[in-house]
Amino acid sequence: MSSRTSVLFLLLAAGAPAAGQAPAPGIDGILAAHWKGAGIAPAPLVGDAEFLRRLSLDLAGRIPSKAELEAFLRKPDRAAKIDELLASPEFPRFWSEVWTAWLNGYAAAFDSNREGLRFWLEKEIREGAPWDRIVSRLVSASGVSNVDGSVNFILHNGVDPAIKVSRAFLGIRLDCAKCHDHPFDRWTQKHFEEMSRFFATIRRENLTGSVRVSDASDRAGGPKPRFLTGSQPVTARWREELGYFITESRPFGRAFANRLWYHFMGRGIVDPPDDFSLRNKPSVPALLDFLAAEAETRAWDLRSMARLICLSDAYRRSSAGAPRDPKAEAAFARRVLKPLLPEQVIDSLAVALDSDALRQRRAAALRGLLGRSFGEDFSLTWRHRETVQDLMAKFALDLPAPPSASTEDLYLRMLSRRPTARERELLRGRPAAEVVSALAHSNEFYFGH
Amino acid sequence: MMTNRRGFLAGAAGGFFAYALRNGGGDLFAQAAPARAKRCLVLWMDGGPSQIDTFDPKPGEETGGDFKAIGTAVPGLRIGEPLPQIARRMDKLSVIRSIRSSEGDHLRGQYLLHTGFPLVEGFGRPAAGAVVSKETPEAKFPKYVTLGAPGFGPAFLGPAHAPFAIEEIPKALATFRALAGRRERIRLSRELDREFDAAHPSPALDGRGETVRKIEELLDTPFVRALDLEREPARERGRYGPHPFGQRCLAARRLLEAGATFVEVHLDGWDTHVENFARVGELCGVLDGPWAALVDDLDAKGLLAETVLLWMGEFGRTPGINARRGRDHYPRVTCAVVGGGGIPGGRIVGETDRLGTSVVKDPVTVPDLFATLFAAFGIDPARRFRTEFGGTATLTDGGRPIRALA
Question: Is A48 an interface residue toward B (CB < 8 Å)?
């Protein structure tokens, strides 16, 4: 093992803190210490209504209904609400969409079945499959694209699976290393080539309307693959061993914890969340260590991690405050705004307007919102990527007739609050359809805050 | 922030000097001639057009297929017989017969011929249209428009330079008209947002506010009127024919006149693995008239001198004819046709061997083709951009403008 490789090995393989250490101080303790050291004053905590809106968007992929809002305000039991949403069928549905956008993007694919992957993920999440098992299966999946949903990840990312696998599950970008040694990170072209070897056994067969993925053992000749830590497979089942190497490595836990944090907070501790590198350090290193250790202790359980994060004070920091304070945002002392995902927009409108019609044409409405020009992974960054045409599609979306309702009622339905005196004045005498349309296109509706 | 054509030429500086050096001193004068292109129109042949049946005919050879070669307006230049109207206008267009590409997969080939770079997951490159949109003076409407397909994105150049993709012209027009009727609501949304925006200063809200402002502006621009083909006199419309491709060509011409800088028009169906000759014949029948009308109209309006016309697809097709009378993917010999915007017509760049199986003279790379296009606009092909993650990216993958077209 070269000295370079051994340093790498130490970096990657050093385990979680040894047993017997004092218990970690928790998310809020770590952040409080960090803010004190950096002289950052945290934003106040939000009220119950805003908390519920956040939580519903993050766990169920939609805003709360007026009835849910009223019930929660009567009895604001946060822990109970978190558990209720985690147990609802909406949770696996929404998170399967989040993961699918992350793994396969939104672009139309020629040969992979995106919905097949999403359906498989929904089932796994519903059944409480741990993240390490999900990832192992995605990396080593074989079968027929229209039957075995998990195979569509490797199919969709078939050109350079090593790049996508490293980004998605380790937060490591080997992209540059494909053509040359990474200019400012430790990854070399050799790392890329050795990682790519893991996928050299893949065989694709085109069936009618489907693709079969399998491993051809006769292709396991030539140089053996090598994982970034230096580990090499001992059997001919390279991809299965890769799944093991990945899920046992230290970057795996960090990437998972960071991804979850990113989805709940709108910003990764390492941000963008799939770019862990020497140049891109975590904004609060102790928090990342803590969450990664927790993820492992909690056996890679998505719901358990969601509960941990959503119950923290950090999750309830307000996003309001002027002037802008990027330092506080990076330290999670103030929340960042995040544009709703297209799925969240449609499902929130359906709840707000109580519209089965919108639910029924969800797929078409989604396509309309996605815009044609961006086949990219929206979830990769919350940063605003809306084109003129994307926004036109939103403005042009025909909203279902609103339930006959007062301005106050529509505000509760759509923005989870009552209108201010100024807003009442602006909207006085306007028909409900116009109020609905104006609110649906407002920033307050369109951004998570 | 914007380095436009003028800044580049006046500033000269390292980029241009380096560029001249790489091209050999002899090219300096040719390249320093004032760039003339202000617009570009791409006719995109989706699926990969057969070069032997169009612009690199091999009559009488075993690979030659069903079509004869016909003479053109240019002595010595012969092209396939299915394009008689374009043949008569080849003095305005040059044929590049020697592009060597390595991407034989549709998506990867399309990516390469739209961006000039091979597809690398996670490192997106901007489409040429996005580059031209960024490097030409600002306008009040989208400058990069695709007609008939979604087009390729702006990558690190940002959403302001994304293609405005019009799949069906009547639908797009209907959307514009619907929005015109909703202006009051859009304005009301902005008004209601005032308190929220003040409490949440953020680049995301600024970006969205800017996009809304652009939409409101756009509704009043000639862009919308250009899409309304009913405004075109019936006789003029007729020259572009009833086929959707012809209508797209007409819309493209109107958009270019209205001030769009980069318009891409799609004609799908060139993936002729089966019954190549019947299908190429039909496709050329769809293509020939509208293309000729475009050349004539742009010329008559004085726009051809400043509008690059570029015909291409994602790759060439096999000289060999398969058992189903089709031709398969063949990136090794890819053909393009270019003219206008200061790029001379009537020339032949490169040559293939007797059967058309390989390039034997003046090979051209895909990056060279893009460098030629950018140079026509006065954009330095070696120009560097900062990507959103802080790295730098050059405009072309080592491309150099094609000398024979200088």
Answer: no
